[in-house]
Design a protein that fits this description.
Elements lengths: L1 H24 L21 E5 L5 E7 L5 E6 L5 E7 L5 E5 L4 E5 L5 E7 L5 E6 L5 E7 L5 E6 L5 E5 L2
Antiparallel strand pairs: 1-2, 2-3, 3-4, 4-5, 6-7, 7-8, 8-9, 9-10, 10-11
């Protein structure tokens, strides 16, 4: 479950970097002799691409057909891995690509729920207690059969359906 914390922190960093990039785009970069940077109140662009140190596009902020906002996050090779956008009706969509994980964290920073794909590509929903221990899992096997498992405080399986 520690891996989920790392992914959450990475996502927070990515969104933070996007915000910082927008702030820097508002500066003209010419500090002159005064040492002060001019900050523009509004930055307008149709597409914003954030590159890493090697020049690979890692983040794209743009609009889709009809003016719908879109944010794409890419891995170190530039392949899209996450996409957040609005549908025509305004509903939000989050697409996670290739070994995705979706984690829910409570107000104290503890992971309480996680959704992922296992190594066979089958979906797994995990529910954790306040101490970070998995207490129940719902999964779908490669054969399409659902499996529900419940665990005790020590992590031992206490109930499963089907048995």
């Amino acid at each position: 479950m520690i891996a989920y914390r790392g992914i959450f922190k990475s996502a927070v960093w990515a969104f933070g970097l996007a915000a910082i990039a927008l702030l820097f785009l508002g500066c003209n970069g010419d500090t002159g002799d005064t040492g002060e940077e001019e900050v523009k109140p509004v930055v307008k662009a149709q597409r914003l691409e954030i590159l890493d140190q090697e020049g690979t596009t890692r983040m794209i902020l743009t609009t889709l057909e009809g003016g719908r906002p879109s944010l794409t996050l890419a891995d170190k090779t530039g392949e899209p891995r996450a996409w957040l956008f609005l549908s025509d009706d305004g509903s939000p969509n989050l697409v996670l690509i290739d070994n995705p994980r979706l984690v829910m964290i409570d107000g104290t920073g503890d992971i309480r729920s996680a959704q992922r794909l296992d190594k066979e590509g089958s979906p797994v929903f995990s529910f954790l207690d306040g101490a970070g221990a998995v207490r129940s899992e719902l999964r779908l096997g490669v054969d399409g059969v659902p499996l529900l498992q419940l665990y005790d405080n020590s992590g031992e399986l206490v109930w499963s359906a089907p048995p």
